[in-house]
Design goal:
The protein has 435 residues and is α/β, with parallel strands linked by helices. The chain has helices at residues 13-28, 52-64, 66-71, 82-85, 89-96, 112-120, 167-171, 179-192, 213-221, 241-249, 266-271, 278-291, 310-323, 350-373, and strands at residues 3-9, 31-33, 42-47, 76-81, 102-104, 126-128, 149-153, 155-156, 175-176, 196-200, 228-232, 256-258, 296-303, 327-332, 379-388, 393-397, 403-406, 416-425, 428-433. The strands form five sheets. It has a six-stranded parallel sheet with strand order 2-1-3-4-5-6, sandwiched between helices. The chain binds iron/sulfur cluster (SF4).
């Protein structure tokens, strides 16, 4: 009889890709994917703890399976990822949700098969949280679910310890894969027909394998075939002129860069331990724009960091105006126990943060909308990724990351198509295929 798995993923692209690795392990064990947790023999929650609401969301959904587990005692519930990797969280999870069968940390993913087998032979909850990172496991074969896009991990962990961030505590120190393994993986993916490769890492441009990150990117860009290359996430302090040179040299590398600035205030950047000033960030942006004038720059911004004054917030708004970001992820600071910022005085009242985030979102949205309007009448190349059943339109992205919708008689998923843009709505474009 067929056995089914259902994976619930929270958080960043790294987690999305790790869920593909979990799917690879489960399908290797003979399980098939299903969309309905009620039909699944195993449900895996791949969790995130970067913000309090991601954690609460996961808790809520794990709690919802309690009734189901009472009826289906043989169903396995596994909770993995960043949430249980935090100090004492695995024990808390076990106390709060005693019906969870397996709890595993970020460094134990590649042991999932053994953990499931252990659980199948035992009534006890199986808990495995490795503290140290160990060797990079090259054996995991992801079951990719995002054709024509493929994610390729080039490094794991982070050494930066930004004062608000829990990632270095749950993902460990930086470890980079050897370039030959990465290039081999990319070549294989291109041969299989993937059209967009994203090199992934918490701090991708501090990659330190046997090559530097610009050298690795150049080697990847030399791979033959028509495909696009993206990389994320870049830290501004590690974003170098050499990297800009490689981006400018190879058309395969998208003219698109996610460069999180977080704040425009130097005192807040210092308190965040970001290790650059707003001036240095702007210099790097200016250099990038001088070499690649049409490069779309996107960012992350945090408001309400402890001690953020009105003046600090205003300089952040000024920086956003100067850079004119193509889009931005905007966040209200979320206190994470165990980080330095959680202990800082002058935590910002919620109503102040709310007012600031609304102003920031308005500004970012107006910039994004204005940029979208400049597309009207232009022809852009879209890599078709999916079909929207509701809108009855195909959709995909251009190299700048902008979403484009269009009708087509043929299934063009996985193909590059040129569309002439007729409408622009917020971050998305609508048009018709032109030949
Ligand atoms: S660079 Fe900073 S924000 Fe990014 S993962 Fe590392 S510690 Fe967190």
């Amino acid at each position: 009889m067929d056995k089914f798995y259902h994976i619930v993923t929270y958080g960043c692209q790294m987690n999305v890709h790790e869920s593909e690795k979990i799917a690879g392990i489960l399908s290797g064990m003979g399980y098939k994917s299903c969309d309905d947790p009620e039909k699944a023999d195993i449900v895996v929650f791949n969790t995130c703890c970067i913000r309090e609401n991601a954690e609460n969301h996961a808790f809520g959904n794990i709690g919802m399976l309690k009734k189901l587990k009472r009826v289906r005692k043989d169903m396995i519930i596994a909770v993995g990822g960043c949430l249980p990797q935090q100090m004492n969280k695995a024990e808390n999870l076990h106390e709060k949700f005693p019906y969870v069968d397996i709890i595993f940390g970020t460094h134990n993913l590649h042991n999932l098969k053994e953990l499931i087998e252990k659980k199948l032979n035992s009534k006890k909850t199986v808990i495995e949280i490795e503290d140290s990172e160990g060797e990079i496991c090259e054996e995991d074969r992801p079951l990719r679910t995002s054709y024509p896009n493929a994610w390729v991990n080039i490094m794991y962990g982070c050494n930066n310890f930004c004062s608000y961030c829990i990632v270095p505590y749950v993902r460990g120190r930086e470890r980079s894969r050897q370039s030959a393994k990465i290039i081999e993986e990319v070549k294989g993916l291109v041969r299989e027909g993937y059209k967009e490769i994203t090199l992934l890492g918490q701090n991708v441009n501090s990659y330190k394998g046997d090559l530097t990150f610009p050298q690795l990117l150049e080697e990847v860009a030399k791979t033959e075939g028509k495909f696009r290359i993206r990389f994320m996430t870049s830290h501004p302090k590690d974003f170098s002129p050499e990297l800009i040179d490689v981006m400018a040299k190879y058309p395969k590398i998208c003219n698109c860069l996610h460069l999180p600035v977080q704040s425009g205030s130097d005192s807040i950047l210092k308190a965040m331990n970001r290790r650059y000033t707003s001036g240095q960030y702007l210099e790097k942006v200016a250099l990038l724009k001088s070499r690649i004038p049409d490069c779309a720059i996107t960012t992350d911004l945090i408001v309400g960091f402890p001690g953020e004054t009105d003046e600090d917030f205003n300089v952040t708004m000024d920086l956003v105006k100067k850079v004119n970001f193509a889009s931005a992820f905007t966040f209200v600071y979320s206190k994470r126990q165990g980080t330095k910022a959680a202990e800082m005085p002058d935590q910002i009242p919620e109503e102040v943060s709310k007012s600031r985030i609304m102003q920031l979102v308005d500004l970012v949205n107006s910039q994004t909308r204005a940029l979208s309007q400049t597309y009207i009448g232009k022809t852009v190349e879209i890599l078709c990724e999916d079909y929207d059943d509701k809108r009855k339109l195909y959709l995909g992205r251009d190299e700048y990351g902008r979403m484009g919708y269009f009708p087509s008689e043929q299934n063009v998923i996985g193909q590059f198509v040129n569309i002439k843009v007729e409408h622009a709505n917020g971050v998305s474009l609508t048009g018709n295929i032109v030949v």
